[in-house]
Specification:
44% of the residues lie in helices and 21% in strands. The chain has four domains: 115 residues, OB fold (Dihydrolipoamide Acetyltransferase, E2P) (Beta Barrel); 127 residues, Rossmann fold, CATH 3.40.50.2300; 37 residues; 40 residues, no CATH class. The protein starts with 6 loop residues before the first helix and ends in a 14-residue tail after the last strand. The radius of gyration is 54 Å and the shape is elongated. It is built from 13 helices and 13 strands. The longest helix has 44 residues.
């Protein structure tokens, strides 16, 4: 008997099979739009793709729909990049669309989108790799056609804004896929030449005319370039892969020339402002010095330094007299303290006691010994104020203090 499973398990199993299929994960699908609806609240797009026999439900989320360059319409033939899966809750087989292009340019556009995704994953579009443009370039390299209008536009704008700069033209073909290697080589040649910045420019044209600037070889040459590079391809609405790799993108060649050099009139105004501020600061400092000098002159005219000197002498004399007076009082006080200390020391001296007729007992080694340490038969010294006597202890007797005669 077959194994019994739930509907949830079935849908989950089928979804897993579809998600694991590499072919279905990134698929290019051609079909005709039917039943197109964009949810006003969420922004998600829901529609079907159909051909002569079949149809499949499709979903395009808002984040992807916002990148559409056209408005999908009922019956429009398109090519979509999508992944195929199963909406597990409803068991609905459907495709999730990542990008959509009108059919007819589908293959080329799909290849372009794939190249963009590849280069972006490698970091060629990363902002941290963008180099700043120099403020005052001296030499600018131009990669453009010798006969195109872009060259004349750039020369006119730079000649008006900053005529001191030197333009170095590296002429190339700017149309046709065979021109890609030529443009890439020109970028590398100017980079090695050591110019301050490089302009890659082409005037307006059809999408096919500008397509060469989507070439991978040009994108990688721009990424390897150590010189700041400005991309100016077509008109404001035209975007190529070179625009994403370049350090700066300009909507037109004329706008690129304005970005590449400063405006001399603006610089003149800036220098004039600096000069005016310098004059104002110098005038302010002169006024401050004048005020200080005037204050000094007024002080000298009023004999202020001499009066301050006399006042200082008086104060100094008073301080000197106070110092001398305090010094005498201090000496007297210290002498009195010293005399008192001398008297106290003399009163505590053992020699004062000896002078009154008393004596001290010392051993044979000359060290003073208490009387209770005397031993019969030993020799001692008896020390008085003016005499020393060698004595022999013939007897040691205990005395009774209570009966001792005074």
């Amino acid at each position: 008997m077959a194994e019994v499973i739930t509907v949830t398990a079935l849908n989950r199993y089928v979804k897993t099979l579809l998600d694991r299929n590499d072919i279905l994960y990134d698929l290019a699908l051609r079909g005709e739009i039917a039943n197109f609806v964009q949810n006003a609240k969420s922004g998600h797009c829901y529609f079907s793709l159909r051909d002569g026999q079949c149809s499949v439900k499709a979903v395009m989320f808002r984040s992807d729909a916002q990148r559409l360059a056209f408005r999908p319409q009922e019956g429009m033939r398109v090519v979509v990049r999508c992944r195929v899966t199963l909406y597990e809750r409803d068991g609905a087989f459907q495709v999730y669309v990542n990008a959509m292009f009108p059919d007819g340019i589908g293959e080329a556009q799909l290849a372009l989108e794939q190249l963009k995704a590849k280069l972006q994953a490698e970091g060629l579009f990363a902002p941290e790799h963008k180099k700043p443009l120099p403020a005052f370039p001296e030499r600018i390299g131009l990669v453009t056609s010798r006969t195109g209008a872009a060259l004349q536009d750039i020369k006119n704008v730079i000649g008006r804004r900053w005529p001191a700069v030197r333009l170095i033209l590296c002429p190339v073909n700017v149309q046709g896929f065979e021109a890609a290697e030529e443009i890439a080589a020109a970028i590398g040649r100017l980079d090695r030449l050591g110019v301050d910045e490089i302009l890659v420019a082409r005037g307006g044209g059809s999408r096919e005319d500008l397509w060469v600037f989507n070439a991978e070889v040009i994108a990688r040459a721009a990424y390897r370039c150590k010189t700041p590079l400005i991309s100016a391809i077509g008109h404001e609405i035209d975007y190529t892969i070179l625009d994403f790799v370049a350090d700066c993108r300009a909507p037109t060649p004329s706008a690129a020339a304005e970005l590449a050099v400063p405006d001399r009139e603006e610089q003149k105004r800036h220098l004039w402002e600096i000069q005016r501020n310098m004059h104002k600061n110098m005038q302010k400092r002169r006024e401050i010095c004048y005020t200080k000098c005037k204050d000094c002159a007024d002080a000298l005219a009023g004999d202020l330094p001499r009066r301050k000197l006399y006042a200082g002498k008086t104060d100094l004399a008073a301080l000197g007299e106070a110092l001398r007076t305090n010094s005498r009082i201090c000496w007297k006080d210290k002498n009195r303290q010293l005399a008192h200390a001398v008297q106290l020391t003399a009163s505590l001296s053992p020699y004062q006691v000896l002078a009154r007729g008393y004596g001290m007992v010392a051993g044979a080694d000359g060290k003073i010994r208490p009387a209770d340490q005397l031993v019969e038969g030993e020799t001692i010294q008896l020390i008085t104020a003016h005499r020393r006597a060698q004595c022999l202890v013939t007897a040691v007797e205990e005395t009774d203090e209570s009966t001792q005669n005074i």
